[in-house]
Design brief:
Pectate Lyase C-like, ten-stranded parallel beta sheet, 7 helices, single chain, alpha/beta, 2 domains
Length: 475
């Protein structure tokens, strides 16, 4: 029976799309095949076997037309994420070596400005209570928590929160941090950055198996502004079985953050609403920038139910008590998403929700739902992006398009992906150009390159001029 049902579904899908210019109607409504597929499957469930089977195969056909065969994008592009070379230790400061979990906990509790708390090689497990960083460093003498070399120190947290940082000028570098809770829902955050924790920095760390690896929010009327998350590898090795938010970079109400050159992957949520994000900034903050990140919504974990969004300004909105202004008239203002490579997302690659005066510039989106600017509070300049899908405004969002390369939604319904075909094998993570890259005829303001190289005078659309520069690690 399965084979006839498969053909029934396929024929139904093609008939749906052919009849009366349905694909053009869906394009006008901004409904991509990957968004229509779960709706059809849900509406056909619970009926007799023929209807249910036809719905399932229709959904499968739509997904295959839009997404193609399930092939894991590679997460092994060098130059993005944590590196094998160490971030160098400060030239000045008091080095405090720790060799046990108890020594580490004591060193953080007694830390003073200028301390360089250095873990000796080994595995350190922490239970019962988080590591609290509540003594301030200074702009000239930060408090640094580090390993001498990446890959030599693993910190295991069997805790809801690992490091709780509430004081300014704490920097963490060269560490491997892993959540090891038997119940996944209990491992919420590797870092909770809150209140007065300005100038927080995470550099060159590998952080695995948390719901929200970085949780950033205000407390008591204070906000941890001017933070940096740079050159980290952030991922989950299994589906998060939780109803709590699953968002590796969960930034609420803070401003002036820079999230750059990180590899963020596999943030699948199986509980609750099953919606997850690679990273968002929301809660009435401003001047937050996501740049030069590689976001793989599905790399090791593929084909699972739920919606994965790449990067967002506004996320799923914020409760007013948690907003910087206690009102959230807008979720973000004057923030940017630029020069990121985002791939393998079951939902939007970039989503703006009440994000005012935004800029979305020179990103490359492959196998995503495209870019959406939504609700009256959103306004965005969207320029120079290379999108395997569409760019659209919804529910009153204001969109100013400035020379992007996209794919009309109607073409996705017949399985045609001209942007994807610009690359040698995008579905497998090979983003080398198949021929000459498409280049813009007009100039642009400063645009960083995903791979950190100087961009040419005539820019290629998207996040990079030549992916080869990312393949050679600059350690």
């Amino acid at each position: 029976m399965a084979r006839p049902l498969r053909w029934v579904g396929a024929m139904l899908a093609l008939a749906l799309l052919a009849a009366g210019g349905t694909a053009l109607v869906l394009q006008a409504q901004g409904i991509a095949p990957r968004a229509l597929a779960p709706y059809i499957e849900k509406r056909s469930s619970g009926h007799n076997a023929l209807i249910t089977g036809a719905g399932e195969w229709t959904s499968d056909t739509l997904l295959r037309l839009d997404r193609g065969a399930a092939t894991a994008p590679s997460a092994a592009i060098g130059g993005i994420g944590a590196r094998s070379a160490a971030v160098r230790a400060p030239e000045a400061g008091t080095v405090r070596l720790v060799a046990t979990s108890e020594e580490a906990r004591r060193a953080l509790a007694l830390a003073e400005a200028g301390d360089v708390i250095t873990f000796m090689p080994g595995v350190y497990r922490f239970t019962q209570a988080p590591l609290v960083a509540n003594h301030p460093g200074t702009a000239l003498a930060s408090i640094v928590v580090r390993a001498e070399r990446p890959g030599t120190v693993t910190i295991e947290f069997d805790l809801g929160e690992g490091f709780v940082v509430s004081a300014p000028h704490w920097h963490f570098e060269n560490l491997t941090i892993r959540g090891v809770c038997k119940v996944q829902a209990f491992c919420e955050h590797a870092f909770h950055v809150t209140g007065g924790a300005s100038d927080f920095r995470s550099r060159n760390n590998t952080i695995i198996d948390f719901n929200a690896h970085f949780k950033i929010n205000g407390e008591g009327g204070r906000f941890p502004d001017h933070g940096r998350i740079e050159d980290n590898t952030v991922r989950n090795d299994s589906v998060r079985d939780t109803a709590s938010p699953v968002t590796p970079v969960d930034l609420v109400a803070a401003s002036h953050w820079r999230i750059r050159r990180n590899l963020i992957s596999d943030f699948v949520k199986s509980g609750g609403d099953r919606i997850s994000y690679g990273g968002f900034a929301k809660g009435a903050g401003s001047d937050n920038i996501f740049e030069q990140n590689m976001v793989l919504c599905e790399s090791r974990l593929q084909g699972l139910p739920g919606q994965r969004v790449g990067l967002s300004l506004g996320g799923g909105a914020t409760g007013k008590p948690y907003c910087r202004d206690k009102r959230c008239i807008v979720e973000q203002e004057q923030s940017e998403i630029r020069a990121n490579l985002i791939a393998g997302c079951s939902d939007d690659g970039i989503y703006l929700n009440n994000a005012a005066a935004s800029k979305v510039t020179h990103n490359t989106l492959i196998d995503t739902g495209g870019i959406t600017v939504r609700f009256p509070g959103s306004s965005a300049d969207v320029e120079g992006n290379l999108v395997d899908g569409a760019i659209r405004a919804r529910n009153g969002g204001e969109l100013r398009l400035l020379d992007n390369r996209t794919t009309p939604i109607s073409l996705l319904y017949v399985g045609y992906h001209p942007v994807r075909s610009l690359f040698r094998h995008a579905a497998g993570g090979d983003f080398a150009w198949e021929g000459e890259p498409p280049r813009r005829q007009r100039g642009a303001a400063f645009v960083p390159d995903l791979c950190g190289t100087q961009r040419g005078a005539t820019l290629a659309y998207g996040a990079f001029d030549d992916i080869a520069a990312c393949l050679t690690r600059k350690d």
